[in-house]
């Protein structure tokens, strides 16, 4: 289905929980956040209904996010339900990787195609610092399990943070030379409680590229701009929502864990699906999803002084 600006919306990100087993500094405050509670998040039955309705509207790619999606009890069962829906062409997941070593085999068996893993540093002390307690060995085990189970291509999402991991750019790039991993540098965004601090630590994709001469351009994939080094096993990607508007190429919509559709990550606009979900009328649900797609704005305006996003990242789904 096309939105009102002619963009084909074919991709939905689904937050299955706002809970997370980490407390990353740019995602939530140190004391954590008040969880929505089990009675306020979408049930697996409701998520399945939404996916079925979305497929009929032309959405074919779905990504499960959180919080941390592997922290949602029964997540493998949800993957199994969604993977068997006719018309779902790609089912993926973004995870912090902490629990992936435990779940990778069952996720692949249930029908998950691949994973993206959030990883902002390769240094143990810095990882524990930014995640407020995470163990980097757990992530490395998750990456290895994903590769072994064929949840590929495995993509590592690296939020670029000035003064924190800008000295590790070459270390991450080196991973693509020796391992079949795609490294994607993502610009820090002014979202939630940490919006002001995020602005001060912003590092643009162009600044990163200056550290990486002789990159070979690859075919662009969605909003990511890809490059490669000769003989490398993996690629290097850049996602630049702040320094380079890619809104014209945006093909996605987001479903929050509490049943709101966000047409754009970078605005506070939301469409509530609960009224439609309380009925057995799937046509009504499709119309509600259509309304959200047609309500998608032409672009975000964060660079022009628009209000920062009110929800913290764990309540949006990345």
TrEMBL record:
S-adenosyl-L-methionine binds at residues 26, 67, 118, 189. Its cofactor is [4Fe-4S] cluster. The keyword GTP-binding applies. Pathway: Cofactor biosynthesis; molybdopterin biosynthesis. Signal peptide: none annotated. [4Fe-4S] cluster 1 binds at residues 20, 24, 27. The keyword Nucleotide-binding applies. Binds 2 [4Fe-4S] clusters. Binds 1 [4Fe-4S] cluster coordinated with 3 cysteines and an exchangeable S-adenosyl-L-methionine and 1 [4Fe-4S] cluster coordinated with 3 cysteines and the GTP-derived substrate. Residues 4-239 form the Radical SAM core domain. InterPro entries: Aldolase_TIM (IPR013785), Elp3/MiaA/NifB-like_rSAM (IPR006638), MoaA (IPR013483), MoaA-like (IPR040064), MoaA_NifB_PqqE_Fe-S-bd_CS (IPR000385), MoaA_twitch (IPR010505), MoCo_biosynth_MoaA/MoaC (IPR050105), rSAM (IPR007197). It catalyses: GTP + AH2 + S-adenosyl-L-methionine = (8S)-3',8-cyclo-7,8-dihydroguanosine 5'-triphosphate + 5'-deoxyadenosine + L-methionine + A + H(+). Keywords: 4Fe-4S, GTP-binding, Iron, Iron-sulfur, Lyase, Metal-binding, Molybdenum cofactor biosynthesis, Nucleotide-binding, S-adenosyl-L-methionine. Its EC number is 4.1.99.22. SUPFAM superfamilies: Radical SAM enzymes. GO terms for molecular function: 4 iron, 4 sulfur cluster binding; cyclic pyranopterin monophosphate synthase activity; GTP 3',8'-cyclase activity; GTP binding; metal ion binding; S-adenosyl-L-methionine binding. GO terms for biological process: Mo-molybdopterin cofactor biosynthetic process. CDD domains: Radical_SAM (cd01335), Twitch_MoaA (cd21117). It holds the Pfam family Radical_SAM. Transmembrane segments: none annotated. GTP binds at residues 13, 63, 94, 155, 252-254. Belongs to the radical SAM superfamily. MoaA family. Monomer and homodimer. Catalyzes the cyclization of GTP to (8S)-3',8-cyclo-7,8-dihydroguanosine 5'-triphosphate. This is GTP 3',8-cyclase. The gene is moaA.
